[in-house]
From TrEMBL:
Residues 55-156 form the Methyltransferase type domain. It comes from the Bacteria. Keywords: Methyltransferase, Transferase. One of its GO terms (molecular function) is methyltransferase activity. The keyword Transferase applies. GO terms for biological process: methylation. The lineage of its organism: Bacteria, Bacillati, Actinomycetota, Actinomycetes, Micromonosporales. This is SAM-dependent methyltransferase. PANTHER family: TRANS-ACONITATE 2-METHYLTRANSFERASE, TRANS-ACONITATE 2-METHYLTRANSFERASE-RELATED. CDD domains: AdoMet_MTases (cd02440). It comes from Actinorhabdospora filicis.
Length: 264
């Protein structure tokens, strides 16, 4: 009698096309955020008054929201983003952690969203998702939108860019196309805008250079490893450009603030 698996052995091996990685593959948070800072944010944001509803705008994979929901067994969450693959990844992670019935990931714009108000609103690296205005006006407009989306006494966690000092012309020339010093304010401008929008500033913290280096490295690492033994001109160009933008452009000049805001 023929061995049941015999014919498999005689088939030619399947030709597997090498999977070209995408920058950002493997990131946990899509921004400069360490595990230690994430843990301390979760401690602060789950303290009294414990939120019952969380809204994550421009959520991506929604990792921080999912960790908050794990720490808040009575809470429910809604994530909103335009990027379907990240939403699907977030939903899969939610199911794997037993959170599937407490969270939804919605593929829609966060601009003028009707999913508020919530007790806790997250906006991490995605203030541009809340308004059609261009930088720098988008930050103040996003804060006004966030104020309308949070319940009185609730919290907003805003992760937002700012300049640590005035960028030089040479640094600006190495950043993204048309980068200009007017795109961002300083940290104090950000907190002023939060107060003007009706918040009190409970906590100010900024990503360290180590967090930035870890984020930028993790963003490109899978591509770099792949390019060490494969060739793809477009990817090589993209990776090289991104590293130069960071190291010659915004490293140490653009900061990332995490503001814990209380709705007055
Ligand atoms: C820098 S990522 C941050 C993702 C996530 N908050 C995190 O920290 O991991 C910015 C996100 O904003 C999303 N985004 C951009 N415009 C948007 C819009 N109009 N509505 C909803 N999401 C948007 C992008 O798809 C992207 O996932």
């Amino acid at each position: 009698m023929e061995a049941p698996h015999h014919h498999h052995l005689t088939q030619p091996p399947a030709i597997v096309a090498p999977m070209i990685p995408t920058p950002g593959d493997g990131l946990v948070f899509h921004g400069p955020l360490s595990e230690a800072r994430a843990a301390s944010l979760i401690t602060r944001l789950t303290a009294e008054p414990r939120p019952r509803t969380i809204l994550d705008l421009g959520c991506g994979r929604g990792e921080l929201m999912l960790r908050l929901l794990s720490a808040l067994p009575d809470a429910t969450g809604t994530g909103v983003d335009l990027h379907a693959p990240d939403l699907a990844a977030g939903a899969a992670t939610a199911s794997a952690r037993g959170l599937g019935d407490r969270v939804r990931f919605l593929e829609e714009s966060a601009t003028n969203t009707e999913h508020g108000p919530a007790d806790l609103v997250l906006c991490l690296g995605s203030s541009h998702a809340l308004t059609d205005l261009e930088p720098p006006a988008h930050t103040a407009a996003a804060l006004v939108a966030l104020r309308a989306l949070v319940n009185p006494g609730g919290r907003v966690l805003l992760g937002e860019s700012h300049w640590t000092r005035t960028p030089t012309l040479d640094e600006l020339a190495h950043m993204w196309p048309d980068a200009s010093a007017s795109e961002h304010g300083y940290l104090a401008d950000l907190t002023d805008a939060a107060v003007a929008a009706g918040f009190r500033v409970q906590w100010v913290e900024t990503a360290t250079l180590d967090e930035w280096d870890a984020f930028e490295s993790a963003y490109l690492a899978a591509c770099e490893v792949w390019l060490a033994s494969n060739e793809d001109e477009k990817l090589r160009e993209r990776v090289t450009t991104q590293r130069s933008r960071y190291l010659r452009g915004y490293r140490g000049v653009m900061g990332q603030a995490y503001l814990t805001l209380v709705a007055g």
